[in-house]
Design goal:
The chain is of the alpha+beta class. The protein contains 6 helices and 4 strands, in the order αααααβββαβ. It has 2 domains: about 5-80, no CATH class; about 90-170, no CATH class. A 4-stranded mixed sheet has the order 3-2-1-4. It starts with a helix and ends in a 6-residue tail after the last strand. The model has no long low-confidence stretch (mean pLDDT about 80).
């Protein structure tokens, strides 16, 4: 099984000039979020606190960690769809390596807080979440003027479901 860092090597480099390797930087962002960091400032602070143990492992030279500005630029310019695909594929790979006959996948829809504007409703996403790995395996946008029923089949199409228990909050979704 590939490491998360190796999985991120599939994300195409989009920056013209960079101090940090993109795969290492994306791994750093994921690790910070897994450790409970909820915002860019928290991620930057966490990185500074963890620099002695993480910098060399992530390929950052001289124990230098990404600054708040670097984190903000990467997050702003990152292809979120590609990022989600890579994390989901890695999660699927980890789930298969993890094994277990009762691997549990939860499907649930959520509206993103703060995404609504005066003229547009909030962005609504449907996610497939691995209970064992605590990772989102896939995510699709639920279009306006529709419901989650139309989004669940594209969400589940790319997932390995054999031997898995899939649960939803609405019984009519599957």
């Amino acid at each position: 099984m590939n490491s998360l860092r190796e999985a991120f090597e599939a994300v195409e480099e989009y920056r013209r000039w960079h101090k940090y390797d993109l795969a290492g930087l994306l791994t750093f962002l994921c690790l910070a979020m897994m450790c409970g960091c909820n915002g860019e400032r928290e991620i930057a602070r966490w990185g500074q606190a963890q620099r002695w143990s993480l910098a060399e492992r992530l390929g950052f030279k001289g124990y230098r960690m990404p600054s708040l500005g670097t984190i903000q630029r990467v997050v702003r310019e990152l292809d979120g769809e590609r990022f989600a695909q890579v994390v989901g594929a890695w999660g699927q790979q980890a789930l298969q390596a993890y094994g277990g006959d009762l691997a549990h996948i939860s499907v649930d829809g959520k509206s993103l807080h703060g995404s609504a504007t005066d003229s547009l409703p909030a962005l609504h996403l449907l996610s497939a979440f691995s209970q064992e790995l605590q990772v989102v395996l896939g995510e699709v946008r639920v279009e306006r003027k529709t419901n989650e029923m139309k989004a669940i089949h594209p969400l589940l199409a790319d997932l390995v479901l054999e031997g898995r228990v899939v649960t939803c909050t609405r019984s009519d979704l599957i």
